[in-house]
Amino acid sequence: MKKTLMVAALTGVFATAAHAQSSVTLYGLIDAGITYANNAGGHSLWKATSGTVNGSRWGLRGSEDLGGGLHAIFTLENGFNIMNGNSGQSSRMFGRQAFVGLASDQYGAVTLGRQYDSVVDYLAPLSNTGTQYGGTIAAHPFDNDNLNNSIRFNNTVKYSSVNYAGFKFGGTYSFSNSTEFANNRAYSVGASYNWGGLNVAAGYLHLNNDVNNLQNLASNSGAQTGEWTFAAGRQSTFGGGVNYTFGPATAGFVYTQTQLGNATAISSTQSGRSSNFGLNGNSARFQNFEGNVRYALTPALSLAGAYTYTRANLGGGENPNYNTVALQSDYALSKRTDVYLQGDWQHVSSNPGGLGAYLNGLGSASTRQDQVAVTVGMRHRF
Fold this sequence. Notes:
The protein is 3% helix and 54% strand. The protein is an all-beta fold and 382 residues long. The chain has one domain: Porin (Beta Barrel).
């Protein structure tokens, strides 16, 4: 159960906000495990892991009632590696989220700061990687559609609607913060609809970048700094999905497509190589077709699985196809603590540029066309 603390109970930084209608919630999640991979850079691998399913984080979330259904809100969220204590997201203090804004009970919320895009907000929860049933290691190849939050955006203005009888929508615009208005900016839109057991969603994300500036420091200006998936002048991602829940079971399907223009490389973080993996043409494309299912055997024990077929065109005649399978069993020891066993397998039809199969987050690509990873771990929420 999350611990809601009055501001007066925190450090003096927040003391002036302590009013009867104001509160700050301290929350977090710790995901730690042991992972075995059959081939990482040509060798078998055992490693202690943080965030195999859900990234470890802690945060502060606050709200002040301004009257008339209007609230001042903020979120500050830090990502970290539980195994060494280092901050994530290029060593940012609040790299996962950092925003402030106004929320209306009638009209929705407008927030400003470092935030998620609309594909993450609306479509990702229908995918396996965007939930607690698959997570980081189950991302589509290279997290090409950003459903696993590999990129978060600076300088972002976001609108999120209220719930209109199950229908919600929103959008973002992330400023370049430079005189080159259209360089290193991003924008997105998304929507979802829920009725009974049916949930449908769609999202669109667009990025513009000077490929020579993508490796800027996190402190530099721009919508995207410190982390990048593709060195590309233009990236457009769109997709849609549907989930249906019947009794203890939920089944779903998600389709996404990412189109790259003026594309030169995939980052070493995403490709699992010590150097950036080169793209051979000015354009590239990924199409992902995912089917997923989960079933609650008991209130404490759940099973989940997903299969994703990814069709890629990397330019220069490189057209690999990826088959990725993720399976998970999870047992809740309490409402806040659970243990899980997860297995992931990927097969790539060819080795483009010598790049073998690569499951997200392992750190090294396979030297062969297959890669298998098995993780046993636990999560604690507070």
